[in-house]
Amino acid sequence: MSGPGDLPEAAPRRLESGSFSSGLTVPDFAACLQMGLRPVGLVQGFCAMQWGWYGAGSPYMRGMSPYAAPGGQGTYLQNWYCPHGFVSAEHRSWGQNYEQTWVEDAWLAGFNAAFGRMVEEAKEVGAHGIIGVTDTSRPMPETNIAEFHVLGTAVVVEDGPPPPGGEPWSTYLAGQRLAKLLEAGFMPISVIAVIASVRVWAYCITEWLMEGGALGWGQTNQSTQEIEQVSEAHLAVRALARDHARRQLGHDTMHGTTVWTSEREVGSGDQVLECTLRGTRVRRFKDFDPMPAPRPTVRLS
């Protein structure tokens, strides 16, 4: 067995300092150390959330047209009416786009529960912040249950004071993107993630254009035209997601925003649109202050 003198000089220091886990890549880890952030552990939170389906007319559905109700309620309801002037079992004379507030509330509750558990883990290791946060949500097959998983790397600011109130800050950013944010004079406060959900209940024109089916007299769709009901729903779901995020931001701003919209067909021309918006809530704490150039760790000469 080799003695201590056979080890590289840095090895005893590394072994004596204790172990830690990290979700950072090598470049992000190097940038983290350059900024004076010391990783102390990989932290995560999990939640399984169940919610039921509520149909039209339930107390969970409240809306106003166009995209936002007065008072910042952020609800959406828009009606569409048949221009043909007749009704039959095969002919949809009425349609509606509406915000599914119960889906949004349940999603936010699940995300906040998982996020809160990640923060609690960070507190246990004495972290000042959590960087490189990732979050996923996915439905469990054949159930109305969604799983939420939030993960990040807890860090300590070298020679820095603990965060106000002992609550670690968090950010989706890591590496050079985080370094540039701090260099510009902005401090991350917390990650923000919201979802907006809009149900498209198709009327006759939308069903005809989406499905290419026949109207009551056997006419097929051979035209090229915009599907206005679906277009309005896409505009609305993105506007709702932005409104939800603004209410969480307060007087702060958002950095590194990503927007993702998914579509799910639930019937002939009927759809559910969900827009997820993520970003880091930031606050200015100083003027622009360039960071010193990093020192090379490997020399070629």
What proportion strand? 25-35%
Structural class: alpha+beta
Number of helix segments? 6
Proportion of helical residues: 25-40%
Q: On the 0-100 scale, what is the average pLDDT?
A: 81
The oligomeric state is single chain
How many strands, which pairing sense, and closed or not: the largest β-sheet? 5 strands, antiparallel
Ranges where pLDDT stays below 50 over 5 or more residues in a row are 55-74
Structural domains: how many: 2
> Which sequence of strands runs across the widest sheet?
2-3-7-9-8
Total number of beta strands? 9
Gyration radius (Cα, Å) is 26 Å
Outline type: elongated
Distance between the ends: 34 Å
Element layout with pairings:
Elements (H helix, E strand, L loop, with lengths): L9 H7 L9 H9 L2 E14 L26 E5 L12 E6 L1 H24 L4 E11 L5 E13 L11 E2 L4 H9 L2 E16 L2 H8 L16 H22 L3 E13 L5 E14 L17
Parallel strand pairs: 4-6
Antiparallel strand pairs: 1-5, 2-3, 3-7, 4-5, 7-9, 8-9
